[in-house]
Design a protein that fits this description.
The protein is mainly beta. It is 9% helix and 40% strand. The chain is built from 8 helices and 34 strands. An 11-stranded antiparallel β-sheet has the order 17-18-19-24-25-26-27-29-30-33-34, covered by helices on one side. Strand 5 and strand 6 form a beta hairpin. The longest helix is centred in the first third of the chain and has 19 residues.
């Protein structure tokens, strides 16, 4: 045995040994099929079986060949073939050699190549040009194949995502984006298949789990179109080798190098200036289209490092997008900013007898009760009656300057003035959301010998999304799709796999994959304790820099000030590990396949997104500067029904006074993590009972223990005896 061959067998033995020593114990993504198979029956001119014929398949692009021998019934089976075109050559004593050219092999599919031989000298030969199979007669699962030619040439909307073509798969609902760009810069698409929920779909790329652990209905990495060789979408009657999916099991196989150099380069430019006006734009008589520029550029190159032995393939795709966003905010007018609400005084409110209801003023006088009044919350009774209406210099409904809260006054000074008419919806602001993304893939295939095939794949996506506050230094909603500041994402996939043929009747394949999703979203105000130091509001911010920034301030009908996104900042570091090993044993008319699948998910986050966020938040209700109409009605009654004294400017007045009706803060003191293991074993027999009947018999076992957390902080710590 050669040293290299011995080392390869040792590697395989280690993988097999792992099946024995790994404890069984949680929820597995589907075992995906990365390879295809060629099966058939060799007969003579009388339709009698030709036993002991040698069947050799050769990949027309790489020269890799495999062979098998027909059994007593003339049947043969050659599994674990990489996607591509193959020449199938059959030789037998006393017969002319026969070659079927360009037999197409697809992943997760069985290609039938029956051969009829003619008696003759071995020096003569018969060549047949293979035709495309019309019907899948050897497998019973329901699946659809999307080949690279279709993916590259059919229209793909949005970001040139292959998932657009899932719309062509029976049982799938129209695909759609989910979550904001800053959350999912890979811009994957989700769908419901056969009525199942989105998270029931599972995808693997070159055998590695491709699942965003936080939101499992997302792919964590979307391969560029130029890198995809084939996509197989199985939607029902799954083979025993596939499992844990109620919707679709999606297998993506990426391109490999061949004996010839092949490359491509492209550039795509999309600009709103080139499109026509939409119906809504025409309806509103819009004359200027919003900014929208998207450039997607890329290139690929593949070829031999050593012909017939070692191959490479690599690609790059860059996406650069600038999208205009506009928001109509509601900001206080100049008179409201100084506490002057006098122009909001309305009609008198009369008692049940039609007489004026007199209320005290903060300057010691009295005045008839009127609609729109603003009252001092620090006067009157606990039930909201007897309060004094604000008065300054004899002017009713004006808050004295001495009563304005210094903190809220300082924040309000940062809020831009209205640039539109009206008390609300009076500030129009535009901005540009920036999105830069780069995808790089590299793959190496090594045909060490006819028995051993080894390959390695690495993919990386680096993305940066930026959005600005709509109200400048005062914060406010983001001029983006969600996610103010910089969202920096780094996604990595690495996979190594190999196939080893021990004999024409027995082979083993294995795949080891690693996926990492690293992401941080950092607002522009991180590093400044704006709430506790600049405004002097106790309880906001904190000693951890992740708690810094502008707290949120909300009041009725007006745009929220500060950082409105309680879910940021965030740091995510999710990882997945995939290990699967399969063995194929051909015995007569039986092709027996069995294997093991293991998947480990790790979620590791800092993101106190529930509640009021890490900086704190304050809200100001309108009742705090209003009267209680129910209590007042019980004492004097009202003519014409009970009025409401709560208006949007009452809420703003509460903000000016610094009297919040709610204040809160969400802190995270421990690591938010989750550990999950998923296991499966299966065995399947594909039995060609006759030339017209193939039975697929299988059994699959899966185990999904509960998720756990580090330091025993998860549900595993629950004790029913003490809880």
């Amino acid at each position: 045995m050669k040293p290299g061959e011995k080392a390869s067998q040792i590697i395989l033995l280690c993988v097999i040994t792992s099946l024995v020593f790994m404890g069984f114990g949680t929820r597995i993504a589907p075992a995906q099929v990365l390879y295809g198979s060629v099966v058939g029956t060799v007969t003579d001119q009388t339709n009698a079986a030709v036993p002991n014929a040698t069947v050799k398949v050769t990949n027309t692009s790489t020269g890799l060949s495999r062979q098998a021998t027909t059994d007593s019934g003339g049947n043969y089976s050659i599994p674990n073939l990489l996607e591509g075109n193959y020449d199938v050559t059959v030789t037998a004593s006393g017969f002319r050699p026969v070659t079927h050219q360009n037999v197409n092999v697809r992943i997760n599919s069985v290609t039938n190549a029956d051969v009829r031989m003619e008696v003759g000298a071995v020096t003569e030969s018969v060549t047949v040009q293979a035709s495309a199979a019309v019907l899948q007669t050897t497998k019973s699962d329901v699946n659809a194949n999307l080949e690279s030619r279709a993916i590259e040439n059919l229209p793909l909307s949005g970001y040139r995502n292959f998932q657009t073509l899932v719309n062509l798969v029976p049982g799938a609902t129209p695909v759609r984006f989910q979550n904001a760009v800053i959350d999912t810069p890979q811009r994957d698409l989700s769908t419901n298949v056969n009525g199942q929920e989105r998270g029931a779909n599972n995808t693997r790329v070159d055998g590695a789990a491709n699942i965003l652990v936080t939101m499992p209905h997302h792919m964590v990495y979307v391969p560029p179109v130029e890198s995809i060789e084939e996509v197989n979408v199985a939607t029902g009657s799954f083979d025993a080798e596939q499992g844990m999916t109620g919707g679709a099991a999606v297998t993506v196989s990426t391109k490999s190098g061949t004996n010839q150099f092949h490359g491509s380069a492209f550039a795509m430019h999309s600009n709103n200036a080139f499109r026509s006006m939409t119906w809504d734009e025409n309806r509103t008589r819009t004359t200027k289209k919003p900014k929208g520029i998207r450039n997607i550029d890329g290139a690929s190159l593949g070829g031999p490092i050593r012909k017939g032995k070692l191959f490479f393939f690599g690609d790059w795709e860059g996406t650069f997008e600038r999208v205009g966003r506009s928001v109509l905010f509601s900001v206080p007018t100049d008179d409201f900013r100084t506490g002057d609400f006098s122009r909001k005084l309305g009609a008198q409110v009369l008692d049940s007898s039609g007489n004026a209801i007199m209320v005290p003023t903060t300057e010691g006088g009295s005045t008839p009760l009127r609609q729109g009044m603003v009252f001092d919350p620090f006067t009157g009774n606990l039930n909201g009656t007897g309060r004094s209406v604000f008065s300054s210099g004899g002017r009713i409904n004006v808050i004295p300057a001495s009563r304005l809260n210094p903190a809220t006054t300082k924040l309000l000074a940062l809020v831009p003035r209205p640039n539109q008419s009206g008390d609300i919806s009076n500030y129009f602001q535009t901005g540009t959301q920036r999105f830069n993304r780069n995808n790089v893939d590299a793959k190496v295939n090594w045909n060490r010998n006819e028995k051993n095939l080894i390959w390695f794949k690495y993919s990386v996506m680096a993305a940066l999304v930026h959005g600005d506050y709509g109200l400048g230094a005062a914060g406010g909603g983001c001029l983006c799709d969600g996610g103010v500041g910089d969202g920096d994402t780094l996604t990595q996939l690495a996979t190594i796999g190999q196939t080893y043929t021990f004999s024409p009747n027995f082979l083993i394949d294995g795949t080891l994959g690693w996926t990492r999703f690293g992401q941080s979203v950092i607002p522009p105000d991180v590093g400044t304790n704006f709430g506790s130091e600049t405004l002097g509001i106790p309880g906001t911010n904190g000693p951890d820099v992740r708690e810094s920034g502008i707290p949120a301030f909300s009041f009725s009908d007006y745009s929220t000030l500060g950082n409105t996104e309680g879910w940021n900042p965030l740091w995510r570091n999710d990882q997945s590990y995939t290990l699967n090993t399969n063995a194929s044993w051909m015995k007569g008319a039986h092709e027996i396949r069995f294997g093991f699948d293991f998947l480990h998910h790790l979620m590791n986050h800092w993101q106190p997104e529930l509640g009021d966020g890490p900086r704190g938040a304050l809200s100001f209700g309108s009742a705090v500067t209003a009267l209680n109409p129910a209590a007042l009605a019980a004492s004097v009654g009202f003519r014409g029904g009970t009025p409401s004294f709560e208006n949007s400017w009452n809420s703003l007045a509460g903000f000016l006074l610094g009297t919040p009706t709610h204040a809160g803060k969400s802190s995270q003191f421990i690591k938010m993590d989750s550990l999950e293991n998923q296991w499966a074993l299966y065995v399947r027999d594909r039995w060609r009972a006759t030339q017209k009947l193939t039975l697929n018999l299988g059994l699959r076992w899966e185990l999904y223990p509960n998720r756990t957390r580090s330091a025993g902080l998860g549900i595993e710590s629950y004790d029913p005896n003490t809880n």
